[in-house]
Write a structure and sequence with these properties.
By secondary structure, this protein is mainly β. The protein has no helices and six strands.
Length: about 70
């Protein structure tokens, strides 16, 4: 099961403003059906690998492994 949290910052007109997507923490690698905002980080805590979502096109997500 993957989970994600949104980061918050203090804003002028609103007390808290979403800034960027928090990393998705999971026990598996992301797949082409795992879609989120481009730039989202996915961390597999079982293998200690990290991926970043680089694009979503034709209903297919592209995750690049960070080396």
């Amino acid at each position: 099961m993957a989970r994600s949290k949104k980061a918050k910052a203090i804003g002028v007109e609103e007390p808290f403003v979403n800034v960027f997507p928090e990393p998705i923490i999971s026990q598996r690698n992301p797949g082409t059906n795992d879609r989120s905002e481009v730039g989202t980080l996915w961390v597999n805590i079982s293998t200690k690998d990290a991926y970043i979502l680089t694009s979503v096109a034709s209903s297919s997500a592209t995750w690049k492994k960070i080396t």
